[in-house]
Amino acid sequence: xxxxxxxxxxxxxxxxxxxxxxxxxxxxxxxxxxxxxxxxxxxxxxxxxxxxxxxxxxxxxxxxxxxxxxxxxxxxxxxxxxxxxxxxxxxxxxxxxxxxxxxxxxxxxxxxxxxxxxxxxxxxxxxxxxxxxxxxxxxxxxxxxxxxxxxxxxxxxxxxxxxxxxxxxxxxxxxxxxxxxxxxxxxxxxxxxxxxxxxxxxxxxxxxxxxxxxxxxxxxxxxxxxxxxxxxxxxxxxxxxxxxxxxxxxxxxxxxxxxxxxxxxxxxxxxxxxxxxxxxxxxxxxxxxxxxxxxxxxxxxxxxxxxxxxxxxxxxxxxxxxxxxxxxxxx
Length: 331
Ligand code: NDP
Hints:
Number of helices: 16
Order of helices and strands: EHEHEHEHEHEHEHEHHHHHHHHH
Bound molecules: NADPH dihydro-nicotinamide-adenine-dinucleotide phosphate
Strand order of the largest sheet: 3-2-1-4-5-6-7-8
Strand content: 5-15%
Radius of gyration: 22 Å
Shape: globular
Number of strands: 8
Distance between the termini: 44 Å
Largest sheet: 8 strands, mixed
Structural class: alpha/beta
Mean pLDDT: 97
């Protein structure tokens, strides 16, 4: 069983007198910086000079260029998008880690797992990866609630890298009631994160798209099809129920007819192909095939990414939902 850390194992005093630089004031950066400040930690922000930079200033943070913030910090939290982080790290952060003794904190395992970032030996490198969107990281602690976080260590130069990671985790509010701080690793976090994206999460989007097409072909109005499939928000409610009641136990919230239909039909969509595709996804994540493919795509200016996004955004379901959302007054 995975190890669950107790709140008592995290000592905020370890961060006393230390400066924490949050590099990247976006979804996670803003939420984590504000939470750390609420817990009385000393936080500065590093960002390029733009809207996020102005937001950090408005929120009352001392806001600097990324390299200046990294130079001042004892703990550097690299909260940039994964595809942006390696270049920013190389040019702006790495030179300030060389004097040693700093802790580099990641919210995702990606760049360390695939060695797109290779920190100097003289630094601690830890993972504090919320399983929660930035808005949740920000809002839940204001209601006295925590959230799940995966914690791991890839370099322990100081001998107390894990303790620092746990102190940061406590500082962002994860240990509050209903939170869960679980031991993991950069590699494991990368695997589970990419696995979801490469299997059920992506498959669900394509399945919904196909279901819309077939329902409309069967004579259902576009609006009724969309409301049934996801536009009502019921899917979100079912997701919440899965997290509290369980994936199968939440079925009790549905009618008996619905339960019978789901139990007898759902499995028909999962055949040998699904297992083979999921195993292939795991292999391609583990051996770096996907990471290499994505790096090559970015180096070429992401033509496939942009083409696929454009195709999906101009597909019949996207046009129909735009009309429905306008009708419903949604932004
Ligand atoms: P965001 O997309 O919100 O971006 C974070 C910051 O990066 C922003 O302040 C943005 O500034 C800056 N930025 C973007 N592009 C550039 C660039 N080219 N050069 C310099 N700065 C740039 O990132 P997230 O907060 O979503 O992700 C941060 C980390 O957290 C990632 O490792 C991610 O995997 C992880 N994570 C994210 C979760 C989420 O819910 N989003 C959940 C758990 C982990 P500006 O807007 O000014 O360009």
